[in-house]
Amino acid sequence: MKDFDVCIIGSGAGGGPVALTLAEAGYSVLVLEKGPWFTEKDFFKDELACCRRSVYTPNLKDEQHVLEEYNGKNDDGSYKWRAEASSDSGSDFWNGSCVGGSSNFMSGYFYRLKPKDFRLRSEFGAIEGANVVDWPIDYAAMESYYTKAETAVGISGKAVAHPFLEPRSTSDFPYPPTAEHAVSGLIDKACRDLNMHPLPTPRAVLSQPVDDRRSCEYSGFCGSYGCSSGAKGSARAALLNKAVKTGNCKIQPHAKVYHLRSDESGKVIGADYYDENDAKQTATAKIFVVACQAIETSRLLLASTGPKHPDGLANNSGQVGKNLLFSAGGSGTGEFSYSQFDNALAEAMKQRGPFVNRGLQDWYYINDKNFGAPAKGGTIDFLFRHPNGISKANGEKWDDDGKLLWGKPLKQKLKRVFAETKYLRFEVFNDWLPTDDCFVSLDPEVKDKWGSPVAKIRLGYHDHDLKVGNYLAEKSESVLTQMGASNVRSSVSGAPPPNLVAGGCRFGNDPATSVLNADCQAHDAENLYVTDGSFMPTGGSVPYTWTIYANSFRVADIIKKRL
Amino acid sequence: MRKELIKKTLNQWDDTIPDGLLERMQKRQSRRDFLKVASILPAGLLLTACDKTATQAPVETNSPASEKSPILQQAPWNTFTAVHNHLFPKDNDSAGADDINATLYLKSVLELPGVDEEDKKFIRDGVTWLNGMGQQMYHQEFYQLEENHRETVLKRIATSSAGENWLSLLLLYLFEALLADPVYGGNPDKIGWQWLEHKPGFPTPSEDKRYYNLI
Question: By CB neighbour count within 10 A (0-12 exposed, 13-18 middle, 19+ buried), where does A122 fall?
Answer without folding.
Answer: exposed
